[in-house]
Design brief:
mainly alpha; about 220 residues; globular; 7 helices
């Protein structure tokens, strides 16, 4: 939940700095259903079914949802910011895979967030793990108990939020269709200056000609 709220704050920063959030709806994201499917699966496993599912099955499904997320990010890797989000997800996925499908949390961060100990028979997607591997990639940060959304989070979560916010700013600030970009404007201005310079050398300076209407006489024709 804390990642979702932080990402929403990132979107809010787009609106506050003049971006157009409605442009997010114009993003051509491929196979968006994969993300929704992963969210539904995680919700069912952790919120609905819970301990009624064998722990090994929960761990496998947890890792499977990360594989689905990676597939979606890979399919949309050309969208600005997705590679940053993928880097954050990779950090989380590595920590989870290295600890049997559980995101390892530091005991200090867990206590700071005010979480009670989790019974050994209960599977949690994040939990204190003794002798955790890649512990530095685990949930080592915490929003203290008593604060809104008190919880633990990881460096990967931070990277994901940064990537999502960057994506929103890039996509919501792109020029509207038909409007020239900054390089195009510079090129147009340069072309205009060159044209003006050419006119100055050929047509702007006064020009006159001399003609002879009859032998022995000469007239000067000034430009109008």
């Amino acid at each position: 939940m804390i990642v979702v709220v932080a990402t929403l704050l990132g979107l809010l920063s787009v609106a506050l700095t003049g971006g157009r959030l409605r442009r997010l709806a114009e993003l051509d994201l491929r196979h968006l259903w994969i993300v929704w499917a992963a969210i539904v699966v995680q919700t069912v496993i952790f919120e609905v079914v819970g301990s009624s599912v064998p722990e090994v099955a929960s761990q496998v499904v947890h890792l499977g949802t990360y594989a689905m997320a990676f597939a979606f990010l890979w399919l949309n890797r050309r969208v600005p910011g997705t590679l940053i989000v993928a880097a954050g997800a990779a950090c989380n996925g590595a920590a989870i895979a290295a600890n049997g499908g559980v995101m390892p949390a530091s005991a200090a961060a867990w206590a700071r967030a005010g979480h009670p100990p989790v019974p050994e028979s209960t599977f949690e997607n994040s939990n204190v793990v003794d002798g955790a591997r890649l512990a530095f990639l685990g949930d080592v940060f915490a929003v203290p108990a008593g604060w809104p959304l008190a919880n633990v989070f990881s460096v990967g979560d931070v990277v994901i939020v940064v990537g999502a916010t960057y994506l929103a700013h890039r996509c919501c600030r792109r020029p509207a269709p038909g409007r020239p970009t900054a390089p195009q404007q510079a090129s147009t201005s340069s072309t205009r200056r060159s044209t003006n310079a050419g006119e100055a050398s050929t047509g702007v300076l006064p020009r006159w000609t001399t003609t002879s209407s009859r032998p022995g006489t000469t007239s000067v024709n000034w430009p109008s």
